[in-house]
Amino acid sequence: MEISIPTLLRIKPNAMYKIGKYLRKENFTRIALFYGEGLKSLFDEQLRISFDSSEIKVKFEEVVYSNAVEDIFKSAFNLPPAIDAIVAIGGGKVIDYCKYIAFILQLPIISVPTSISNDGFASPGASLLVNGRRKSQKAKIPFGVVIDTDIIRKSPVRYTYSGIGDLISKYTAIYDWKLAYHMVQEPVNDFAVLISRNAVEVMVSHSNKDIKDLEFLRLICGCLVMSGVAMEVCGSSRPASGSEHLISHAYDMSAKKPTLHGIQVGVATLAISWLQNNPEHHLIKSVLEETGFIDFVSRSPLNKQDFIDAILQAPNVKENYYTILSDKEKMDKLIEYVQSDEYFNQLLA
Fold first, then answer.
1. 3-class state of residue 58 by DSSP
2. What DSSP character marks residue 31?
3. Which of 101, 124, 154 is the last residue of a domain?
4. How far, in Å, CA of 224 to CA of 227, rounded?
5. Greatest CA separation for the chain
6. What share of residues in the chain are helix, strand, coil (percent, to 5)?
7. What angle do the packed helices 170-184 and 243-254 form, to 10 degrees?
8. Residue 22, SS3?
9. How are beta strands 133-138 and 125-130 bridged, if at all?
10. Mean pLDDT score of the chain, rounded to an integer?
11. 109-113 β-sheet, strand order
12. pTM of whole model > 0.90?
C-alpha cells in the first residue's frame, strides 16, 4: 500500500504571507486558488504580494460556497490544464472541496486552514454532499499544510475548542478499534495507533493549555496533522474516529441546532470514555476543564434529547463498524448516565 504524507509543513506566525516562497521552493509556480466564503477580502491583498514576489501565477480562482459533489466536478473540469498545485484557503468546507478535486485530477493540494476545528485539513478524506446527504469520501491527503498560528489565535474560540474536542477523542477511538479487534477480529494497525496516541499525548502533556498561547496552538495544529497522517497510514478513519464520532454524525442528522463537529465529539468523548471505563477518562475530563472547553460548552449546552437520540442512532451511522455502542446494554447504560449524571449534565440541557 502506498502511503503519502505532507511534504511541506509550516506552522508558525505569519506563515500565510510566505506561501509564495513555499510554493516556489516546491516548483509550484502555476496554481489554482480557492477561498472559503468571506475570506477573499481578508487575505487577497497579502497573498497577491506574496505570489507576485515569488513569481507565482494564479491561473484559476474561485470562492467555494458549498461542498456538493456536482459543484466539485464542475470546478475540477473548469481548471486549465497547466496547473502545478491547488491552494485551499479557509475552513473544512473549502479544504474538503479542494482535496476531492486534487483526488480527481491527481494534483498536489496545499491546505491553508484559517481555523482548526478538526483534523480534516490534513486527512485523506473529505466530507461532501452527495445527493443532498453528507457522505465521507476518500480524497487526496495534502502535499502541504501551511498554518499561520497568529490567524488561528484570532479565529473564534469555538473553532479551537472544536479542534481540541476532535483531538482528545483519539483516546476513545483507539479503545473502540482495539475492542473491534477482540470482538470481531478487525485488524489493528499498531503504527497508526502509535501516531494517533502520541499526537493527543503531546497536547495533553503541554503545561500551558491557554488557547491563545501561540506555542500551545502550534502543538494542537501539529497534533491534528499527525492524526490525519495516522488515517493515511492505516487507510481508514479508525485511529481518529470511534463511537464518539458516530454520536456526533448522528447528532448532525437529528438535532434541531447542531453545533461544530469537534464540540459534539468532545462532549461525546467524555461520555464514551466513562462508558468504556477508559483509563484516560479522568485525564480527558481534566484537559477539557483546563483548556476551558467544559466552561465554553456549558454556556451553550447541547440538546439532551437530541443527544440521547444520537446515541440510539450512532450504531447505524456506519455499516460494519464495531464500537462499544454495538452492544445494546452498553448503549442503555450510557443513556442512563447522560440523563442522570450531575457533572455531565452541565453539557446537556
1. strand
2. E
3. 154
4. 5
5. 62
6. 55, 15, 30
7. 110
8. helix
9. antiparallel
10. 95
11. 8-12, 144-148, 109-113, 85-90, 30-36, 57-64
12. yes
> Quick one: what percent of the chain has pLDDT higher than 70?
100
Residue range of the domain that includes 79: 8-154
Nearest to 263 by CA among 158, 338, 346: 158
Instruction: Give residues with Cβ within 8 angstroms of 27, minimum separation 6.
Output: 84
Please determine, for residue 153, whether its predicted confidence score (pLDDT) is greater than 90. Answer: yes
Question: How many domains, in total, are found in the chain?
Answer: 2
Are 233 and 143 within one domain?
Answer: no
The whole-angstrom separation of Cα 9 and Cα 298 is 35
Q: For 319-347, what is each residue's pLDDT tens digit?
A: 899 999 999 999 999 999 999 999 998 99
Using CA atoms, how far apart are residues 174 and 162, in angstroms rounded to an integer?
Answer: 19
Residue type, 139: A
Q: ∠ at Cα 236 (230, 237), nearest 5°?
A: 70
Query: Are 118 and 265 in the same domain?
Result: no
Rounded-to-integer distance, Cα 270 and Cα 116, Å: 20
Instruction: Tell me which of 32-36, 167-171, 311-315, 343-347 is least confident.
Output: 343-347
Instruction: Determine the length of the chain.
Output: 349
In the chain, the amino acid numbered 211 is I
**DSSP-assigned beta bridge partners for residue 144:** 8, 110
Q: Which residue has the cell 458516530?
A: 246
CA 204 to mean position of chain CA atoms: 18
